[in-house]
Write a structure and sequence with these properties.
Blueprint (H helix, E strand, L loop, with lengths): L1 H8 L5 H4 L20 H17 L16 E4 L3 E2 L5 E8 L8 E5 L1 H14 L28 H6 L4 H19 L8 H8 L17 H6 L11 H7 L6 H8 L3 H11 L10 E4 L3 E2 L5 E8 L8 E6 H14 L28 H6 L4 H19 L2 H4 L2 H7 L1
Antiparallel strand pairs: 1-3, 2-3, 3-4, 5-7, 6-7, 7-8
Helix pairs in contact: 11-14
């Protein structure tokens, strides 16, 4: 009985009851947390981001590489020959092959000639082969030549600023060509590098560094042959020798003979004039007036005196040349009386050489007088040109 009683009084512990939380604490949910993102997706996110970063390449600036055998040019010393012409010296080297080092010495006109041809090759990126696009830095066009105009002319080729500006631009041009696969290997550029200029060369008229139009900007409005006296002083040291200038300004012997025959031709009907040069006069401002006396042996009363400067001859020449450009302007009944030209004789030269020699140069004045007389007498023997309003106004 004792045992039974003791079992009856013994409390039976319910396992479920022991797991209940205290009354003053909220129940803890044992359900899985609600999350819309699967666990395996969360773990995969870093991997996707890392893969995306790996697929996006980092943009790098293309490295400018020279071609195999290309040269890197650096400026050297600028030298001047006895005529005052500047020669620009450059040293080209290739660190990978010192045996290919080269030295070039060129004047402006040579750079200009080379630049004209190379610019055509570098005008389009199509001239760079596709397999070499990663090796060459190309230009849409070749860098421009340094300035050569009336301003640089008046400053002088020996002006330090002009020399430095040109030197800096020339080295840009050379290095741009050296990095262009077509231009660098072209015959034009290889010829430019291989041919070395002679420092005793004088400036040829075709190598003038400026155009006549540009040169006229710096001159006095009086005409193409007029320039400030200060300009003449600045450029006197650059004047070529008289022997050279005279050979360039002289005309072929055959042409002189023809013109002499025209000057001595008989007048047609006694009304034409014969022009002879009188004394040229230089005014206070340095402008030269060319004087001529026109006479008609058959009628001395028709004698004419004119005094004109170069620019006035030039303006008249432009208009009269149109009338004398064709033999059709000579009437058929007068063909046997007039010596005609298919075109009006050319004006005397007015370029950098004559400018440097000076307007008061005696030889220059004589050459111009002779040519002006030839022009006037040619017009006097042309039936249409002689009676034209243009020539009549010129004589008035």
């Amino acid at each position: 009985m004792g045992c039974t009683q003791s079992k009856a009084n013994e409390q039976v512990v319910d396992p479920a009851a022991t797991s209940q939380p205290p009354v003053d604490q909220p129940p803890v949910s044992t359900a899985a947390p609600e999350d819309s993102t699967p666990a395996n997706s969360v773990e995969a996110t870093p991997a996707v981001e890392a893969e995306a970063e790996a697929e996006t390449p980092v943009e790098e600036k293309p490295e400018v590489k020279a071609a195999d055998g290309a040269l890197n040019f650096v400026p050297g010393e600028v030298t001047f020959n006895e005529h005052g012409i500047a020669f620009y010296n450059f040293d080209g080297s290739n660190p990978a092959d010192p045996s290919k080092d080269i030295h070039v010495s060129k004047r402006y006109s040579e750079f200009k000639t080379m630049h004209t041809e190379i610019a055509k090759l570098m005008a389009s990126e199509k001239n760079v082969p596709a397999d070499q696009q990663d090796k060459f830095q190309t230009y849409a066009a070749l860098p421009a030549l340094p300035k050569a105009n009336a301003v640089t002319f008046l400053r002088g080729r020996g002006n330090k600023m002009v020399v430095e500006e040109r030197e800096a631009q020339f080295v840009k041009i050379l290095n741009a060509i050296a990095r262009h696969p077509i231009a660098f290997q072209s015959e034009t550029f290889t010829g430019f590098l291989s041919f070395q200029s002679k420092t005793d060369d004088v400036m040829h008229p075709n190598g003038i560094e400026f155009s006549i139009t540009e040169l006229s900007i710096a001159k006095h409005p009086g005409g193409a042959d007029v320039a400030p006296s200060s300009a003449m002083k600045e450029t006197a040291k650059e004047e070529p020798t008289d022997d050279y200038a005279s050979t360039q300004d002289s005309e072929p012997a055959t042409e002189r003979k023809t013109e002499a025959a025209i000057a001595n031709a008989k007048t047609s009907d006694g009304t034409a004039l014969v022009f002879e040069a009188d004394k040229a006069i230089a005014k206070e401002n340095g402008v030269v007036f060319y004087a001529f006396v026109a006479s008609n042996p058959a009628d001395p009363a028709k004698e004419v005196h004119i005094s004109k400067r170069f620019s006035e001859f030039k303006a008249m020449h432009v208009e009269i040349a149109k009338l004398m450009a064709s033999e059709q302007n000579v009437p058929a009944e007068q063909q046997d009386k007039f010596q005609t030209y298919p075109a009006l004789p050319a004006l005397p030269q007015a370029n950098a050489l004559t400018f440097l020699r000076g307007r008061g140069n005696e030889k220059l004045i004589e050459q111009r007088e002779a040519q002006f007389a030839t022009i006037l007498n040619a017009i006097a023997r042309h039936p249409v040109a002689f009676q034209s309003e243009v020539f009549a106004a010129f004589l008035a």
